[in-house]
TrEMBL record:
The keyword GTP-binding belongs to this UniProt entry's keyword annotation: no
Chain sites annotated for binding [4Fe-4S] cluster: 268, 271, 303, 310
Gene3D superfamilies the UniProt entry points to: Dihydropteroate synthase-like, Sulfite Reductase Hemoprotein, domain 1
Gene name, Swiss-Prot/TrEMBL: ispG
Sequence ranges assigned to domain IspG C-terminal in this UniProt record: 265-351
Cofactor binding remark: Binds 1 [4Fe-4S] cluster.
Pathway: Isoprenoid biosynthesis; isopentenyl diphosphate biosynthesis via DXP pathway; isopentenyl diphosphate from 1-deoxy-D-xylulose 5-phosphate: step 5/6
Domain of life of the native organism: Bacteria
Catalysed reactions listed for this entry: (2E)-4-hydroxy-3-methylbut-2-enyl diphosphate + oxidized [flavodoxin] + H2O + 2 H(+) = 2-C-methyl-D-erythritol 2,4-cyclic diphosphate + reduced [flavodoxin]
Swiss-Prot/TrEMBL cofactor(s): [4Fe-4S] cluster
Pfam families according to UniProt: GcpE, GcpE_C
Known function: Converts 2C-methyl-D-erythritol 2,4-cyclodiphosphate (ME-2,4cPP) into 1-hydroxy-2-methyl-2-(E)-butenyl 4-diphosphate.
EC number assigned by the record: 1.17.7.3
The protein's name: 4-hydroxy-3-methylbut-2-en-1-yl diphosphate synthase (flavodoxin)
C-alpha cells in the first residue's frame, strides 16, 4: 500500500459539519481543561480555542453532571463537540442524546454486549461516529501478555479488536487514534495502522510535555506522519493553555502545506549585517498574521543586501535598511518605506492582499 496517499484514501466520516477522511484536508483538535459541568468556563475556553483556529473540540465526560451539560455547551459553540467517555455506557447514551457530534469510547471496554449494542444503536440513530482511542499506556491485558510490553503491533491489534466489535454491529463511522508518549512507538503504530485499515486516523503524541519540549516532541512525531501522508485530524497535547496546542498544530500544518486558512511568517535568523530590531518586529508581525485567514507568506528580513532575494517565495515582505526599509513582493522591491512606519505599512499591505485573496 502506498502510504503517501493514506490520508485521502480513508473512509469519509461526518463529524458535525465536517467530513474527516476521504480527502487531503486535516482538522485541528484540542481538548478543554475546564470541568465540563462548568458550562460557562467550558464555553469560554472553547470560544477562545475557536478564535485560535481549533476546528473540533473534545471534552472529558467523567460523570452524569458532565454528560448532562453537553447540550448546553453545544448550543453556544460553533465547532463539532466530541465527548470523551471511559467505560460507562450510560454516560455515552446521555452524551449522544444531548447532541454530541462524536464520542470517544473503546467498545471493548464497555462491558456486556447489550451495553455495546445500546451505544452503537444510539450513535447510528443520530448519525455520529465513534472514535476508538488506543493508548500504549492502557493496552488490554491479553495484548500485553502476548507482546510482553506495549508495541506498535500490539496497539494495531488492539485497534482491530475494537474495530471488529463495531463492524460486527454493522457500524463503520469509525475514527481511530493510537497514541503513545514515545515518539518512535507512536509513529510506528500509526504507520502500521495506515497499512492495516482505511478508517481515518486522529494523530497525537500523548503526554508530550510542556510548551517548549512538548511542541518539539509533537513536531517530530506528527511531522514524520504528516510528511508520510498519514493523518486526518490531529491534536498537539501540551501541559499548557490549549490555545497553544492549536497554535502549534497550525504551524505544523502550514509547514506541510496542509493549511489553507493561515498566513506564514518567514523571518531571517539575523546576522552581523542586521539593520533593524528584527526580533521584536518578527514577533509583532507573527502576532498580527495569526488572525489572517488567507494562506499568505510574509517575510521579515534583517537587511536588504540579500533580503528580498532570500525570501523570493514570500507574497509580501520587508527588508531592513538604515533609516528605511524595502517593501517587496515575490522577490521584487515595490518601494522604500521609512523605518518608523515600516511595520504599519507592511500590515496595511498584508490586509490588502488578504482582501484580494477572498475576493478571488
Ligand atoms: Fe543576515 Fe540580512 Fe540574511 Fe538577515 S537577511 S540573515 S540580516 S544577511
Amino acid at each position: 500500500m502506498n502510504e503517501m496517499i493514506h490520508r485521502s484514501k480513508t473512509r469519509p466520516v461526518r463529524v458535525g459539519n465536517l467530513t474527516i477522511g476521504g480527502s487531503d484536508e486535516l482538522f485541528i483538535q484540542s481538548m478543554t481543561t475546564t470541568k465540563t459541568h462548568d458550562v460557562e468556563a467550558t464555553v469560554a475556553e472553547i470560544l477562545r480555542l475557536e478564535e485560535a483556529g481549533c476546528q473540533i473540540i473534545r471534552v472529558a465526560c467523567p460523570d452524569e453532571r458532565a454528560a448532562n451539560s453537553i447540550g448546553a455547551i453545544k448550543e453556544r459553540i460553533n465547532i463539532p463537540l466530541v465527548v470523551d467517555i471511559h467505560f460507562d455506557y450510560k454516560l455515552a447514551l446521555i452524551a449522544i442524546e444531548q447532541g454530541a457530534d462524536k464520542i470517544r469510547i473503546n467498545p471493548g471496554n464497555i462491558g456486556r454486549q447489550e451495553k455495546v449494542e445500546a451505544v452503537v444503536k444510539a450513535a447510528k440513530a443520530k448519525g455520529i461516529p465513534i472514535r476508538i482511542g488506543v493508548n500504549a499506556g492502557s493496552l488490554e491485558k491479553h495484548i500485553l501478555k502476548k507482546y510482553g510490553y506495549p508495541t506498535a503491533d500490539g496497539m494495531v491489534e488492539s485497534a482491530l479488536h475494537h474495530i471488529k466489535i463495531l463492524e460486527d454491529l454493522d457500524f463503520h463511522d469509525i475514527i481511530v487514534s493510537l497514541k503513545a508518549s514515545d515518539v518512535n512507538l507512536a509513529v510506528e503504530a500509526y504507520t502500521k495502522a495506515a497499512a492495516a485499515f482505511d478508517y481515518p486516523l486522529h494523530l497525537g503524541i500523548t503526554e508530550s510535555g510542556t510548551l517548549f519540549a512538548g511542541s518539539i516532541k509533537s513536531a517530530a512525531g506528527l511531522g514524520t506522519l504528516l510528511s508520510a501522508g498519514i493523518g486526518n485530524t490531529l491534536r498537539v497535547s501540551l501541559s499548557a493553555d490549549p490555545v497553544q496546542e492549536v497554535k502549534v498544530a497550525r504551524e505544523l500544518l502550514k509547514i506541510f502545506g496542509l493549511s489553507s486558512n493561515a498566513a506564514t511568517l518567514i523571518s531571517c535568523p539575523t546576522c552581523g549585517r542586521i539593520e533593524i530590531d528584527l526580533i521584536s518586529i518578527a514577533n509583532e508581525v507573527e502576532e498580527y498574521i495569526s488572525t489572517i485567514k488567507a494562506p499568505l507568506k510574509v517575510a521579515v528580513l534583517g537587511c536588504a543586501v540579500n533580503g528580498p532575494g532570500e525570501a523570493r517565495e514570500a507574497d509580501i515582505g520587508i527588508a531592513g535598511a538604515r533609516g528605511e526599509g524595502l517593501l517587496f513582493m515575490k522577490g521584487k522591491t515595490v518601494r522604500k518605506v521609512p523605518e518608523e512606519t515600516m511595520v504599519e505599512e507592511l500590515k496595511m499591505e498584508i490586509d490588502k492582499l488578504a482582501e484580494e485573496y477572498f475576493e478571488k
